[in-house]
Amino acid sequence: MSAIAYADFSCPMCYLASLRVDRLRATGRATPDWRAIEHRPRLPLTGLRLGPAAHRLRDRELAAVARLAESGEELPSGSPALLPHTGAAVVAYAEAVGAGVADQVRSLLFRAYWLEGDDIGDPEVLRHLLPPAFATGRATGDPVRDFGYAVTSQRGPVTTAAYRRIRDWQCDWLALGAPLALTLTTDDLTTDDLTTGAAALAALRTSPMEELRDAS
């Protein structure tokens, strides 16, 4: 069995989880199969501009996650004013998996939103952001390989393989019935080895498979 992490790019706990996965990779340890999902698929395609009260609530959520961070894990002091529709970001990541640049694009998307405040739900933003990462990959489709064109103007995937990944990731995550965006499980896709939220984040401090076995 191998571990699987489901995560949404607009979730602060998922951002911290991504930082932990980067640390595991840097030390040569096993990492989960990262699968991008949409936690709020009914948001407007252009995202949701947060009012003062909603923005304060979002900042408190980020601050609560920041208290779980360890040395070397730095989260921003405040949240972006826009809550993006993450569909286009999921598409970009799904294409990145096929191109062999999943880890680079995952980190790039999280940083673009949480550190730069970019609207990662906007295909035009992604067209400027992604080409350098895709240029190092092995994409077989000419638009993806040559131009980093991973998301259509309608926020859809370029390749059929990416479309299938997106569909399967979302369906599998929904089938688990997990209430939170950050979900850690195993590739048998049962709820026996399911952790979410802070427990999933804690499991990523070391080997996620070891933590899942200990919890079961």
Automatic annotation (TrEMBL):
Keywords carried by this UniProt record: Isomerase
GO molecular function: isomerase activity; oxidoreductase activity
Pfam families: DSBA (PF01323)
Start and end residues of each DSBA-like thioredoxin domain: 5-129
KW S-adenosyl-L-methionine (keyword) present: no
Protein name per Swiss-Prot or TrEMBL: 2-hydroxychromene-2-carboxylate isomerase
Taxonomic lineage of the native organism: Bacteria, Bacillati, Actinomycetota, Actinomycetes, Propionibacteriales
